[in-house]
Amino acid sequence: MAQAVKRATGYDKFVNWKLLIIPVVIFTILLLLPASQGMKKVGMQYSVGAKVVTNYISEQLFHNESSKVEQWQVLTAQMMEQNMRMGALTKDRFMKRDAKWLKKYKIQGDSANLKKALEYVNTKITDAAYLTVMKGAFDLRSNNLSYEDLSSADKKSADKGAWKIKVAIAMMVFVVFCFMTECMPLPGVAFCIGLILVFTGVVSRSEVAGLYWDDACWFIMGSLMFAAAFVKTGVDKRMCLLMFKKLAVPNVRWITLIFFLVISPLAAFISDHALAAMFLPIGMLLYQNSLTDEIPEDKELAKMLMIAIAMACNVGGPGAPSGGARNVIMMTYLSDMFGMDIGYAQWIMYCMPFVIVMIPLTWIITNTVFKPKIRSLAPAMRHLEGEIVKMGKWNKNQIWAMIIFAIMVFGWFTEKEFYNMGIYPIRLGIGVIAVAGAVAYLLAGVVNWRDYQEKVDWGVVWLYAGAIIFGRTLDKTGAAYWLAQSVIDTLAPLGMDKGIPLMLTSNGLTAVLTNLMADGPAAAAVGPITLNMASIVHPGTTFLPFMAMATAISSSFAYCLIIGTPPNAIVYASGYLEPKDYLRVGVPMWFIANIMIVILTSIYWCGIGFGGLPGF
Question: Exposed (0-12), middle (13-18) or buried (19+): which is 423, by Cβ within 10 Å?
Fold first, then answer.
């Protein structure tokens, strides 16, 4: 078999100043323009809202400012403020909070003060009184915060909050343009994100350094390192042959169909990051062993295999609550805000049909968009068989590679559950486990550092690190919330503020945001707004749980950009893809997926209803 011809990639290009000057100029203009009233309002909510609301709650409950009450009383007000932001307005939700919850939301409080806070709310405040205070706090933050009533220090904080939103929006335009046109090397864009945020005062130099090493970045780094170990030891060959040797006709269409049939259902229950990392070396191996002297390079085949892996991961996530943080976030919102619960099996009953329908549709789109010269992978299968015969029995390094990989996968699947059960004293995270596995390969002698240095695409690691900061900035500054609120407010006069049109607006907005930031924050930004609107126009109906599930599903539509989701970034490490390749498949998939979720809601969900709730 011929080896793949090394070709120029985006990393080999220099900056195209004719293109780059466009986003630079737009970025500068956006920064010079005055902040809109909407930006100022959201900036005020995000910068001083927590302080003002905490003080309001303290005055309502303890008849004094938060700075003048006891520690347990401050803790009570802070806990209520955080619950209010989550839409959890009932006393029952407050009473379920514990030390882990405090730690998750970075609220300072020891066990003694937490016990006093819970006891006070439980014994001294009635359900009705608690709800009244929470509604007053919500109304204060959402509608009654007045810039003129703020102290001079708080006014400065509010102005800074509006400035951060403006920077985030300007940065979004700059980054999206650069990613879509590749006018500068993409890892360079990732570093520009951090530089922009530091130079504009949005984050400090120490904060930006920490953001570049998010757990997701560690995972991508570790997963690419273990993929390098698989390739070196030949384990990828054994796994590939095991998957496809039973095919009577190993045509590329059936190979990609197997990718979808295997990966997508699994992605509903286990990490899509892990699945992409596991199948990346298999896809690369299939391509490299399909080349011949007559066809020494087939870019379309390489792109088709890589995109199929990424899209199979993206399609499967909505199928079960365990398929992504977005699903759990919307389930929690629905429960906290309206007391409606969706069970695990119930979620699968409503959402798995979407996955089942999207598998063949996505497979057809992928095979339609890409037109490889090589259609039969039978020669690749025969070549793999010959390679494995030469390898003989499983050797020591291959066995160690599989043992370490099995332990790593077990850790990915169980670390969250074991932490919640108290088996692990600390939350490890999938990124730490991935890097630990990569180090274990070194310790076992499976690889040396030269293997990692030469075979890992370190540019992809930095690329996704920049993407994490980008999405986190849109979320934390309130820019994503401002975008969501602005779009919905604009479309409301057009009749898009109730029923299926409202759901279509919510889904489309979430599907846009999720390509720019992590799926969880995208759902978190849009969910509270649309659920509150849904409760106003269709209170107590099936529309509320349907809106929650539709928002979660649409936040998985990160098909269009490399930074949209970890699987997109992981397959980009193959070196065979360009940004436009994601758009070739992602744009039609984006529209089809949005249409399918509306059809699913109108026919299937409305047909079976939801519990005893009336329809809308």
Answer: exposed
